[in-house]
Write a structure and sequence with these properties.
Blueprint (H helix, E strand, L loop, with lengths): L9 H16 L4 H8 L5 H22 L13 H18 L3 H9 L4 H20 L2 H8 L6 E2 L2 E5 L2 E4 L5 H21 L10 H7 L4 H14 L11 H6 L7 H4 L1 H19 L7 H10 L5 H9 L3 H18 L13 H7 L3 H22 L3 H10 L3 H22 L1
Helix pairs in contact: 1-5, 1-13, 1-16, 2-4, 3-8, 3-13, 4-7, 4-18, 4-20, 5-6, 5-16, 6-14, 6-18, 14-15, 19-20
């Protein structure tokens, strides 16, 4: 088996690529995830599904061919993962952030991200305290079935053991079917509420309905709100207003970014580990407040290059927002439009929402053992059952919370 372990600093480069790509996606802007929670704009979900469809057959095909990866599907402990996903989804809908996007938002110069990161660290600290109690032990040990994936189970850092009667090639075939199903969903699920086409379908058919065009215009407006100026013919105009261009590169921009992110995670798993973000918050909380707690000791011992990749994520988002998309807000008071429509533009109220939502989100992430990066993105690429349980819990909670909160 061909294996390799890169030094920790390579995480900076991986994080830089993903941070820059996701900033171009618009993930740094909390309005993007709030609109997902309101089920108004499903770009993030479309792109994640495309990333899975591209990356999963690649990683399992290479694995069948003898390439070793640092597998890390999260353990499937039903109650803790499900409850953690519920808390995570509620916090995401309130704040508009998940752990990685907080770092991206800081790179994009978003003021409310400062409050989000404080809430996130305190949320991680809360789980550190709960973990060593009987409640914490019950959550992670009850109905714990280990690190399962479709067709196999992780038995060592480099080995996903196929289930009885299956081979690595069979798992590759499963990954192809898995990818086909997810790609079909991404192709037919309309991006916008009231629209008819996904990003892929709109590009293939080369047409959009009037409501889809208007939604694209509205998206460009909120993504660039408070950002740096840019002129005609610039790359920023093409990225931000790609609905109006005929250039094949920019018309396929978002879809290309989705594939790039998925393949970057595959590369990361070959080099060192999965892509994860929330562990850094527990590491910071342990270093600052709780160094002698059991969970902190586990994190200190097992931490990989997450702090490096988080710094890289911040740097990548900063680079993209200044030199490519021009969305850098210079820490001005820019409040998400959905939040303004419901709660007004009072800074203190928004900061409370950003802080409180991030607190719930990180408490849920650490309870479940992973976040949108480790559970959903990396877990989905590995066909991890825990990742899909977490994702379903997150989406159900997110949609319900947004319905109640934003009406």
């Amino acid at each position: 088996m061909i294996t390799f372990t890169a030094p920790m600093w390579v995480g900076l480069l991986i994080g830089f690529v993903i941070g820059g790509a996701a900033e171009a996606w618009g993930i740094s802007n909390p309005e993007t995830l709030i609109r997902l929670a309101k089920w108004e704009d499903r770009l993030f979900l479309d792109c994640i599904l495309i990333g899975f469809a591209v990356a999963t057959p690649v990683i399992f095909g290479l694995y069948a061919a003898g390439v070793g990866f640092h597998w890390s599907p999260k353990p499937l402990y039903i109650i803790g993962v499900g409850l953690g996903g519920i808390l995570f989804g509620a916090g995401l809908a309130i704040s508009g952030y998940f752990p990685g996007s907080i770092w991206m938002a800081l790179g994009e110069g978003r003021r409310d991200a400062i409050y989000a990161i404080v809430g996130a660290i305190l949320g991680a600290a809360t789980w550190t305290v709960i973990y060593q109690t009987p409640v914490g032990s019950w959550l992670v040990n009850t109905l714990n079935f280990g690190s399962l994936v479709l067709g196999g189970k992780k038995v060592s850092p480099y080995v996903i053991q196929p289930l009885d009667g299956l081979t690595k090639f069979d798992m590759f075939i499963i990954s192809l079917i898995y990818a086909a199903v997810l790609f079909t969903i991404a192709y037919y699920m309309p991006r916008y509420k009231g629209g008819f086409r996904s990003c892929i379908r709109a590009n293939v058919e080369k047409r959009m309905s009037p409501i889809e065009v208007q939604k694209h215009i509205d998206t460009a407006v909120y993504l660039t709100d408070g950002g740096l100026p840019y002129g005609e013919g610039t790359i920023a105009k093409k990225v931000n207003e790609y609905y109006a261009t005929e250039d094949n590169v920019t018309r396929w921009f978002m879809i290309s970014v989705a594939g790039l992110v998925g393949l970057t995670v595959v590369l990361e798993m070959f080099l060192h580990q999965i892509f994860g973000e929330s562990t850094t918050m527990s590491w910071i909380a342990g270093q600052l407040f709780l160094p002698d707690f059991k969970y902190s000791q586990i994190v200190f011992k097992g931490i990989g290059w997450e702090p490096f990749s988080d710094i890289g994520t911040l740097m990548g988002a900063f680079f993209a927002s200044v030199f490519i998309t021009r969305r850098f807000t210079s820490f001005r008071n820019v409040i998400p439009p959905s939040w303004v429509a419901r709660f007004g533009n009072n800074q203190a109220v928004r900061f409370m929402g950003s802080f409180g939502g991030a607190y719930l989100m990180l408490l849920g992430a650490r309870m479940a053992g992973g976040c949108a990066s480790g559970h959903i993105l990396s877990g989905g690429i590995q066909m991890a059952l825990s990742g899909w349980e977490f994702a379903f819990a997150v989406f159900a909670s997110m949609l319900l919370t947004a319905r109640l909160l934003y009406r």
